[in-house]
Predict the structure.
Amino acid sequence: MLGEYLPIVMFLIVAIGIGCVLLTVGSILGPQKPSAEKLSPYECGFEAFEDARMKFDVRYYLVAILFILFDLEIAFLFPWATVLDTLPTAGLVSFIVFIGLLELVFLYVWKKGALEWE
């Protein structure tokens, strides 16, 4: 019974071993010269701070969540676009309903002022 798990255990050992080797080689051979450009804020847009309990503006997270939401909804359009000519009319109607709902949500978010950054 335990012999059936041997390939899984071997796979995990090899995967962990490869991961450890790659991390070790990267830390040994990688450049160790931090510069001002490397230490500057990257995508968050604000300087690093020492207190982890500092309050952030909720709009930052709201814009990020809205971006992910609309980005995922747009990703659903690609399969429709590739098979749109082979879909029956019900597929076209569902496509139009989806786009309409997406536009209504976008207009609602815009009307509420969630996309304004002051």
User: Anything to note?
Assistant: Residues 55-118 form one domain. Residues 22 and 28 are 10 Å apart (CA to CA).
